Structures are given as structure tokens and as C-alpha cells.
């Protein structure tokens, strides 16, 4: 059993207020002889309160972490909590955490013949080996801006960044050199036909003379969204497919793609939706259902086939494929129903009608209330009222399925 699971169980048994009191006493006792363990425990408690939507308590614990080992995690969690608790979702977003800080880095390897980024989130080599400086709107260099996709292995995050970059280019009228995840290359090349696009893993030394400035893909957000009204402009943007949507066999039934879990184990603790509940709801409506779920277990396949019969399809969408592959399959659907994962971002960025089933806590980008996703005009949000309780969410989804009809799909 993980430490967090153990303490979560205790919290459910003794209640929130008693749990908070006991944790304060235990942490105070451990702080002197076992400071590092006390910090770990403090961070675990902060995460438990955060996952239960108790943002003020979560912030108190996260800010009390003192030692260097867990400080970065605590700062990241604290910034996320602040955006959620201080009305961030009612204002406009900044990306929480600030994972890459260029301060203190110097251009100390000017003759490096090979330059590779070792850490996607902290691309020190952009400064140390290439001599790039951060781009700001005051930069006047005529050279292209070097765009590094710094969302690690998050295909959803990189898809959102691509949409933001589309708006960024339109707004600032600049030339770009974009270096992205290989799974995203076709999408980026299609939507930035006048710019250069490369896959991560390339030797970057050649760009030393070609660029002066870099911009991390996630940091584009701060330049594109600076006021509430900027969301309306962003929602005018939609990514384009390289080809037409996939063609499905003719059917009188609406076609629904769905996904119910994330492959991120930590986030899955609160984001994942029990598939049996969703399947039983689907069974009430005459639709064809297409799994967009990555790594479906055998027992889930058996369960879905048992409940939905010949209306469930597992070979239409290939979630391990490229973003273009997934987008073409989703664009053939009448509706996408998904929790918060890469399917949501890909469907939204390409303008596919989508219902997002959001947990408590939800991803930093989503408003805490209301149906608008702000980032994607085609996405409608349904929020949990309490952590890990999905009945109200499925009840709100029910009339949407009841009214679903086959739509006229645009040729992209």
C-alpha cells in the first residue's frame, strides 16, 4: 500500500478535521529528528487535501515543506492550489509551477558539436550549449524563434500548446522553428506550413547560428492569454487535419468515441471513471461506441462487450498512434465523451464535439464551474460535485446522449 493510500484511508475513517489535527501533531513530533520524512508526510497530506478539493488546507501543508528534497514538488503543488483557490479559474491562466528557470545559466559550451536536450522540462542546453536567450515581445531579432515543446511525454499538453502557438503566430507575425514530439510532427507541419518543424532527438547544434531566442511551448500561454477576452480569440482557432476524417461504415446510429481513464497513475487516482457505470449508461441509448482508450485491459473489453454487444468497437481508434491518426478517427464521430486526458485535448483542438467529464481536483486549465472549457469552442464541461463521486456527472450526461443525433461532419 502506498503512503498516500494509507493516509487517505485514515482521513475517510476519522473525518477531515480530526485527520488534520492528527497530522499536525505527528509532523511536529517528527520534524526535529526526521525532518526529511516529515516533509514527505507533509507533502502527502497536502496532496490528500488537494484531491478532496480542500484547497486552503492543502496550501497550508504544501507551504510548510522546508527541506530541499521535496521543495520543488511543494512549490509546484502550491502554485497549482493558488490558481484553483484564489479565483484563478474565474480569471485567466498562467501555467503553474515554473519548471524551467534560466537564471544562473551561462553560455559555457559554445563549441559543442552535438547538442541534445536531456530533460524536456528543463532544457538547460538551450542556454549553455546554444547561447539562446528567452524571447519576449520586446525582442527585435529578425531570426526565427526557437520553439521547444517542453511538455515531456504529454501528447495532450503538446496539442494544446500547438493551438496556442497557432494563435501566437497570428498575433505576433513571427517566424518559428518548432521542435516537437514525433507523434505530433504531422499536425505541426500541417498547421505551420511556412515554418520549419523537427522531431525531438535531433542534434540541435546547427541552430546556434540560426536563432537568437527560444520560447518554451507552454510559456506561449502567458503571451496569448492576458485577459478574459483573449479566450474568445483563441476559440476561433482550430487545428487542421492533413487529410479527411476517417470514413466509417454507414449507420443510422450516432457514433460516439469514449475514454474513461488516464495512464498517469497519480492522476488516475481521482480522474478515472468506473467503466461499468459508464457502459450501463451507454446501453440505454442506440449509439455505436468506439473505444479511444489506451491500454484497455482484457476484463474491461469483456465487460464492455457483455453490456454493449455489437455496438462496441475497439478497432476504430488507435490511441497509441500519432496525434494526426487519433484526430482523423475522432473527427469521424458525432460526439466524444472522455475524462481529462490526451483524447480531450486532441478532440477539442480539432473542433470535434466533446463532453469532458472532470474530477475534483481538475486540471489547472479548466474553470472550476460552468460548461465552457475556454480553450476549445467544441468542448462542454461536466464537473464532479464531490471527489470520486460520478453519479451526478453521469446524470448530467444522460440528457445529452438522449438528444444526440447524427451530425453533418465537415470535410477538413
Structure overview:
- Helix 7 runs parallel beside helix 15, helix 12 runs parallel beside helix 13 and helix 12 packs parallel to helix 16.
- Strand 7, helix 13 and strand 8 form a beta-alpha-beta unit.
- The chain has 412 residues and is of the alpha/beta class.
- It is built from 16 helices and eleven strands.
- The radius of gyration is 23 Å and the shape is globular.
- The strands form two sheets. Strands 8-7-6-9-10-11 form a six-stranded parallel β-sheet, with helices on both faces. The protein has a five-stranded parallel β-sheet with strand order 1-5-2-3-4, covered by helices on one side.
Question: Which features characterize this protein?
Answer:
single chain; 412 residues; alpha/beta; Rossmann fold; 3 domains; 6-stranded parallel sheet; 5-stranded parallel sheet
Radius of gyration in whole Å, from Cα? 23 Å
- In the CATH hierarchy, the architecture of the largest domain is 3-Layer(aba) Sandwich
N-C termini distance = 48 Å
Give the beta-strand count: 11
Mass-distribution shape: globular
The gist of it:
This protein has 412 residues and is of the alpha/beta class. The protein is built from 16 helices and eleven strands.
Topology:
Elements: H1 3-14, H2 16-31, H3 35-51, H4 55-63, H5 68-85, H6 125-128, E1 133-134, E2 145-148, H7 155-172, E3 176-180, H8 185-191, E4 196-199, E5 213-216, H9 221-224, H10 230-234, E6 255-259, H11 265-271, H12 275-282, E7 288-291, H13 298-308, E8 312-313, H14 323-330, E9 335-338, H15 342-349, E10 354-358, E11 379-383, H16 391-402
Parallel strand pairs: 1-5, 2-3, 2-5, 3-4, 6-7, 6-9, 7-8, 9-10, 10-11
Helix pairs in contact: 1-2, 1-3, 2-3, 3-4, 3-5, 4-5, 7-15, 12-13, 12-16
Amino acid at each position: 500500500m502506498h503512503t498516500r493510500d494509507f493516509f487517505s484511508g485514515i482521513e475517510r475513517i476519522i473525518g477531515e478535521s480530526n485527520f488534520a489535527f492528527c497530522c499536525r501533531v505527528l509532523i511536529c513530533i517528527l520534524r526535529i529528528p526526521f525532518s526529511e520524512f516529515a516533509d514527505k508526510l507533509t507533502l502527502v497530506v497536502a496532496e490528500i487535501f488537494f484531491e478532496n478539493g480542500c484547497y486552503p488546507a492543502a496550501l497550508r501543508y504544501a507551504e510548510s515543506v522546508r527541506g530541499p528534497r521535496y521543495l520543488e514538488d511543494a512549490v509546484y503543488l502550491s502554485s497549482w492550489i493558488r490558481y484553483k483557490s484564489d479565483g484563478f479559474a474565474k480569471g485567466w491562466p498562467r501555467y503553474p509551477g515554473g519548471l524551467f528557470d534560466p537564471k544562473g545559466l551561462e553560455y559555457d559550451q559554445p563549441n559543442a558539436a552535438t547538442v541534445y536536450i536531456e530533460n524536456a522540462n528543463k532544457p538547460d542546453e538551450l542556454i549553455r550549449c546554444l547561447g539562446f536567450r528567452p524571447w519576449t515581445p520586446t525582442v527585435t531579432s529578425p531570426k526565427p524563434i526557437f520553439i521547444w515543446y517542453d511538455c515531456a511525454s504529454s501528447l495532450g499538453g503538446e496539442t494544446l500548446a500547438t493551438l496556442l502557438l497557432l494563435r501566437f503566430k497570428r498575433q505576433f507575425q513571427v517566424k518559428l522553428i518548432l521542435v516537437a514530439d514525433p507523434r505530433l510532427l504531422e499536425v505541426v507541419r500541417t498547421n505551420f506550413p511556412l515554418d520549419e518543424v523537427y522531431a525531438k532527438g535531433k542534434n540541435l547544434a546547427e541552430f546556434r547560428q540560426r536563432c537568437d531566442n527560444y520560447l518554451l511551448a507552454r510559456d506561449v500561454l502567458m503571451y496569448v492569454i492576458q485577459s478574459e477576452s483573449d479566450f474568445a480569440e483563441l476559440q476561433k482557432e482550430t487545428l487542421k487535419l492533413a487529410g479527411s476524417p476517417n470514413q466509417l461504415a454507414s449507420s443510422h446510429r450516432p457514433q460516439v468515441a469514449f475514454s474513461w481513464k488516464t495512464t498517469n497513475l497519480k492522476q488516475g487516482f481521482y480522474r478515472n471513471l468506473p467503466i461499468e457505470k459508464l457502459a450501463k449508461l451507454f446501453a440505454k441509448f442506440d449509439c455505436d461506441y468506439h473505444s479511444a482508450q489506451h491500454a484497455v485491459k482484457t476484463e474491461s473489453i469483456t465487460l464492455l462487450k457483455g453490456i454493449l454487444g455489437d455496438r462496441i468497437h475497439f478497432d476504430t481508434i488507435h490511441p497509441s498512434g500519432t496525434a494526426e491518426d487519433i484526430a482523423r478517427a475522432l473527427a469521424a464521430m458525432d460526439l466524444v465523451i472522455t475524462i481529462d486526458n490526451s483524447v480531450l485535448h486532441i478532440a477539442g483542438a480539432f473542433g470535434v464535439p466533446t463532453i469532458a467529464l472532470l474530477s475534483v481536483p481538475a486540471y489547472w486549465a479548466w474553470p472550476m464551474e460552468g460548461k465552457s472549457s475556454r480553450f476549445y469552442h467544441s468542448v462542454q464541461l461536466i464537473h464532479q460535485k464531490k471527489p470520486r463521486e460520478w453519479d451526478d456527472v453521469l446524470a448530467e450526461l444522460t440528457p445529452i446522449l438522449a438528444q444526440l443525433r447524427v451530425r453533418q461532419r465537415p470535410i477538413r
